[in-house]
Design a protein that fits this description.
It contains 2 helices and 18 strands. With about 300 residues, it is mostly beta strands. Strands 1, 2, 3, 6, 9, 13, 14, 16 and 18 form a 9-stranded mixed sheet that branches. A 5-stranded antiparallel sheet has the order 5-4-7-8-17, with no helix packed on it. A hairpin with a 7-residue loop joins strand 7 and strand 8. The relative contact order is 0.22. The N terminus is likely disordered.
Length: about 300
């Protein structure tokens, strides 16, 4: 491969990071956490019953075997399922009954996949996504000698999606993978779907990392959480690879595969701008904390 090949560079970064982790050979504790918000949207079939925003906090917690730093894969990971997890932040109230206060919420353990701890605003309305406010996630391992591991997030402002920006219509795609483009108010799209971010890189810098998230929605039940059909960071090992290099996510456009739209119906397509957080120093060096705020649009497949 040529010296500037991105794959070569990613491999070098990965080996460098994992070589550092080898200084503490054996099993280490791995924490990969993400705090995501999808925005509120108009209901495509009932204007009086909009689709609310959702906040979801998810953490993957487990051990990782770094005996051989050149062979890090999911088989080297084992979940920790008996930790106690909480998230804390200072809520800035809007006035009236919504007062400013310090909030501490429990984050329940989930069963699928094992080692997951998750909390959503649907289950806990007090979970809010507040730009600029630091959130602290703490996981305490079980036992009298339990050890605390932490992650810190600070949500940032979202960007817009050019194909959906200021659009009041629903983009309709033909079901079955046709490449015939359908025109919406602000552009054309096709399946597979390409979306374009509207923010620009600072002078001499690069775009912040971002990724697309797709989920089915039911306009007749708008308060139900979207069922995710496409998430490029949906596992601990994928998050680990993201930590090693986020270069593939610093692009202007994002291609969403046709498999993200497995059936006819309504989908929410979200572009999430990611801000890297911090993880406590007692965790594996490849651990990560991400806060991602999104712009979105509704797409109909028929």
């Amino acid at each position: 491969m040529p010296p500037g090949d991105p794959t070569t560079m990613i491999r070098r970064i990965a080996l460098a990071v994992l070589a550092l982790s080898a200084l503490a050979c054996g099993k280490q504790t791995f924490l990969a956490a993400a705090f995501v918000q999808t925005p509120a949207l108009p209901n495509p079939i009932d204007a009086s019953n909009g689709i609310p925003q959702f906040q979801v906090l998810t953490a993957y917690f487990g051990t990782i075997d770094t005996t051989d730093p050149t062979k890090i894969d999911p088989s080297k990971m084992a979940p920790i399922t008996d930790a106690t997890a909480t998230v804390a932040w200072h809520h800035v109230g809007a006035g009236g009954s919504d007062v400013s206060e310090d909030r501490i919420l429990s984050v329940p353990v989930a069963t699928n996949p094992a080692g997951t701890y998750a909390l959503s605003s649907r289950d806990e309305p007090r979970l809010t996504f507040e730009v600029g406010q630091p959130y602290t996630l703490v996981l305490l391992t079980a036992g009298t000698d339990g050890e605390a591991f932490g992650a810190r997030f600070v949500p940032t402002q979202p960007t817009d999606i050019a194909e959906f920006k200021n659009s009041t219509c629903t983009i309709t795609l033909p079901f079955g993978g046709s490449t015939t483009a359908k025109r919406c108010k602000d552009g054309t799209v096709s399946q597979p779907l390409t979306i374009t971010r509207t923010d620009v890189a600072p002078a001499g810098g690069s775009l912040p990392p971002a990724f697309a998230l797709v989920g089915t929605i039911d306009p007749n039940n708008p308060t139900a959480a979207p069922k995710i059909t496409y998430n490029p960071l949906d596992s601990a090992d994928k998050l680990l690879k993201y930590v090693l290099s986020d270069i593939p996510y610093r692009t202007q456009t994002f291609l969403i595969p046709a498999t993200a739209f497995p059936q006819q119906g309504y989908y929410i397509v979200t572009l999430l701008i990611v801000k890297q957080g911090k993880v406590s120093s007692n965790a594996f060096i490849g651990s990560t904390a991400l806060a991602a705020s999104g712009a979105a649009g509704i797409l109909r497949v028929q």
